[in-house]
Write a structure and sequence with these properties.
The structure is a single chain. The chain has a single domain (40-261), classed as Glycoside hydrolase/deacetylase (TIM Barrel, Alpha-Beta Barrel). The protein is 45% helix and 14% strand. The protein has nine helices and eleven strands. It is globular and about 50 Å long. The termini are far apart.
């Protein structure tokens, strides 16, 4: 009777058990050799003149996988200027003009659509000594791209476009929307990238009603040692304020460095 009962249970529940195992296997494969794929939405609480504090687990994870939200090394007064480029609104050329006039290096994180449409601007960035970073082909939330090969294609596809255009390789990656996981950091590192987040972002999307004065105030107010600044090149306010932001930062004793000095 006991054996018959066990057999009946097996018939009833084995299919569900096997389905559960298969689903678990799919989840593990999606997480890349056991790495966790829990989505982290990057955001920091800014404090005037001080680096933001982040959870210790985030800090440890970034250190393991070549991730940065602060820089500076031995020179704490270095700061880093970065722009995200999803589309062009006519302000990148003036931004590049200002950077050239002020002799300031910057990094521009571009998408596939931007690279396809704005090859001349991308070539100008590299010709003038700026870094062009990987922001993926289609700007997806990286943890939501559950298939490892598809995620690698998002990263490698942009690198291939960039290499065909410039003959150069990409070394730095910024996760779209600031969303990442242990798995996506591991994949990015495996492909040879340093992941670059930020410690000082300004709410600067087009049409937000801000002014150049607000941009100047809000960016410089939260500068700190090793600051990685995130701006968007679609913001007229940023373009108008950039020269004053650079001058003010230098007056405060900061120097602008390239991401190579992270």
């Amino acid at each position: 009777m006991e054996k018959l009962f066990v057999k009946i249970l097996s018939i009833l529940f084995l299919p569900a058990f096997l389905a559960g195992c298969a689903a678990a296997g799919e989840r593990e494969a999606a997480q890349g050799t056991g790495y966790q794929n829990t989505k982290i939405q990057w955001g920091v609480k800014k404090t005037e003149g001080e680096p933001p504090q982040i959870p210790a687990a985030w800090s440890e994870m970034l250190q393991r996988f070549d991730g940065y939200y602060l820089g500076g090394g031995g020179d704490s007064k270095k700061i880093f200027l970065t722009f995200d480029e999803g589309y062009e609104a006519g302000y990148t050329a003036p931004i590049l003009d200002t950077l050239k006039e002020k002799n300031v290096p910057a990094a521009f994180f571009v998408t596939g659509a931007y690279l396809d449409k704005e090859g001349g601007l991308v070539r100008r960035m590299t010709d003038e000594g700026h870094i062009v970073g990987n922001h993926t082909v289609n700007h997806p939330s990286m943890p939501e791209v559950a298939d490892d090969q598809k995620l690698e294609a998002e990263i490698n596809g942009l690198e291939e476009k960039f290499f065909r255009l410039t003959g150069l390789h990409m070394k730095y990656l910024r996760p779209p929307k600031g969303e990442f996981s242990e798995r996506t950091l591991a994949i990015s590192q495996k492909l040879g990238y340093k992941t670059v987040l930020w410690s000082n972002a300004y709410v600067d999307w087009t049409g937000n009603g801000n002014s150049a004065k607000n941009a100047l105030t809000q960016v410089t107010k939260y500068l700190h040692d090793g600051c990685i600044i995130l701006l968007h090149a679609v913001s007229r306010e940023n373009a108008d304020a950039l020269g004053d932001i650079i001058n003010s930062a230098r007056d405060m004793g900061y120097t602008f460095a390239g991401l190579e000095e992270l």
